Amino acid sequence: MLKRKVIMAIADGLGDRPHPLLEYKTPLEYAQTPNLDRLASEGITGMMNPISSGIPVGTDMGHLILFGYQPHHYPGRGPIEAIGIGMQVEPGDIVFRCNFATVDENGIVVDRRAGRIREKTDEIAEAINGIEIEDGIEVFFKPATEHRAVLILRGNGLSDKISDSDPKAPHDGKPYHQVEPMDASKEAARTATILNMLLKKSHAILSSHPINMKRNAEGKLPANFILTRGAGKMVKLEPIVQQLKVKGSCIAGESTVLGVAQLAGFKPITDSSMTGNIDTNVELKARLALEEIAKQDMVYVHIKAPDVKGHDNEPFEKAKAIELFDQMVGLIVQDLPENVYLALAADHSTPCEVGEHTGEPVPILIHGPGIRRDRIMQYSELDCAHGGLGHLTGNEFIRTLHGLIGVVKKQGN
Amino acid sequence: MLKRKVIMAIADGLGDRPHPLLEYKTPLEYAQTPNLDRLASEGITGMMNPISSGIPVGTDMGHLILFGYQPHHYPGRGPIEAIGIGMQVEPGDIVFRCNFATVDENGIVVDRRAGRIREKTDEIAEAINGIEIEDGIEVFFKPATEHRAVLILRGNGLSDKISDSDPKAPHDGKPYHQVEPMDASKEAARTATILNMLLKKSHAILSSHPINMKRNAEGKLPANFILTRGAGKMVKLEPIVQQLKVKGSCIAGESTVLGVAQLAGFKPITDSSMTGNIDTNVELKARLALEEIAKQDMVYVHIKAPDVKGHDNEPFEKAKAIELFDQMVGLIVQDLPENVYLALAADHSTPCEVGEHTGEPVPILIHGPGIRRDRIMQYSELDCAHGGLGHLTGNEFIRTLHGLIGVVKKQGN
């Protein structure tokens, strides 16, 4: 078998719809993308539905699939975020996404984000990390970006079938919720009790924490409460790299993507200049992608900005973000070794006019040695819809790439 | 319902990739194929993944699907090979692929193929066929091509969860393996014991067999041992012809294809002039296909040569093999009755540059009465990727044909 490799360049939220401000072109059609179009004219294209037609997916689910898992392997957002911020997550762990919040003396949530706190959340978190609630239960707590954090409960007989303490009201001013079991199991009842005790105890600790005292003195909202949501039990997942006996890396700025990558067994590579926005360092990303593919079988390189601009309904900005993606891809193509496939993909569509992820398919492309070149000359939602790969699910797309690098087992003899 | 029939012409291993020696055309694009292209311009085309994108299949699996089974019906290579050489295989039978081999007095495998023995293997096999090992266990043994043979154990309480006696070393000079149970069941333990007794007893018989004595005298390696591998338990499969209430034939030179055909209930038709290579008798195949379709509902006609040339990385020869396929199809089209669909297919891709089966889709085509003609004018991997049938799985493709001849049950009312 030939020794072949693959780089997948992912433009987050790339897919869009024709937009009136762009002469009824999509941002991808409107953007100047000479590199993407050259790849289209030399490669094979198609469309991809991450799960199936019409089903929107989150960034985590979209990447889970692009990394080679099936949708039913989704472990929940909590475990992915935990891994993304460098926490060790073990099968059976109950993982929560959390906000630092401000509650008043009556338990009313004054601010779900504690004044969008950004500073010293690591010190505040350290006061909760490892607190003792009950024998045999370990507590791990770590801050994520801004007001966000992750909580892990580890121990026997725990369940993720419990409700959120986060009232998630569109406006603040509602009380935080007591955590309730969501099924009749004794595990759920026990976990709810443990979590309520933990929230109460941590509220007491945080209320008198020096950093919060200082915030109070400065007129800032204190981070005196942990709102929990989205309890998820970590499943046992065999890393994709083990299943396929490959080695790989993922270059990204976003912790969700890096979390999924690590779950799948890909080495996370990041840098503070990878900002998750339009000022991200594409030169560095391209250079690292080329350096990594010299050592690895598969390299993922991700750019977040198109998704951000889609959420913000900024079609011109989204087109610019796509031009940034085009630049990055151009830098990679320049020095791409002959035995490396270059695949273009997105995790989902984020049409500007919607400002949310939608279920429309995204354009995909494969360029490289011995590829069956199709008749398509442009990388866009409309052109690729007629491409030679046809319409694939995310799983079919990634398996196509695995097939090209020769790591899919033959069925029959 | 109109009385319609179908001939499927299968070019084994047809699918390929653009090849530098062929001006970056695939062998199918490069070959002169006026008949295939005429059918494309008059018919409807598409692409087929036997199982799903990226998954390579063996010839047996590929044909199992083209004959109408689902991938999970795969009974293993042993049963297919057994049926292909005319053995009766019953559900529950444990079937082994075997080699005649030469072992020395210490059990060292001197040659896994007994000097690539070809002569009188039927006489040697007859000495083992029917030997008695234990009450209630029947033994069937029959030679296949060259040094190969098939062994069947029939009786209650047998298991296929046992290991190989074939050391399958890249080089000879290792001892043959004792057969071991591969799970904790008493059936596996019993089957391993029976097989070890059988191997010992047959070694004794073969060592003093007159043909081997003669080979020894002539300085040839004796076929004094049976190496077994790939134990498979025959499943109960309802023949496709019974499921659909149709009658059919299969014209082929290769025992694997004929084996699958018989499993599916299709009458096997072969001739020594069907060589499995580029000198195969396509006039005879075409004539027989037309003769058979007069009597049957479905006829498969198979040509092996494109796969052989793909394995050998001979793109020009593969193009010639495809021109042979084109000739055969031309002869069939000439005299095709008006009520007969002609379908073109392949079981898998065997790209020259890889020399192995790969998971890339193969072009498919349907020509015949009332067909929805698409815009495609050439039968090739690239043109058909834009065809009107879209991208189908093997099962969807064969069901499309079953639908056209009116043997698919309506769902609902």
Automatic annotation (TrEMBL), chains A, B:
InterPro entries: Alkaline_phosphatase_core_sf, ApgAM_prokaryotes, Metalloenzyme, Pglycerate_mutase_ApgM. Belongs to the BPG-independent phosphoglycerate mutase family. A-PGAM subfamily. Residues 5-392 form the Metalloenzyme domain. Catalyzes the interconversion of 2-phosphoglycerate and 3-phosphoglycerate. Pfam families: Metalloenzyme, PhosphMutase. It catalyses: (2R)-2-phosphoglycerate = (2R)-3-phosphoglycerate. Pathway: Carbohydrate degradation. GO terms for molecular function: metal ion binding; phosphoglycerate mutase activity. One of its GO terms (biological process) is glycolytic process. Residues 161-177 have a biased composition (Basic and acidic residues). SUPFAM superfamilies: Alkaline phosphatase-like (SSF53649). It comes from Peribacillus simplex. This is Phosphoglycerate mutase. The keyword Isomerase applies.
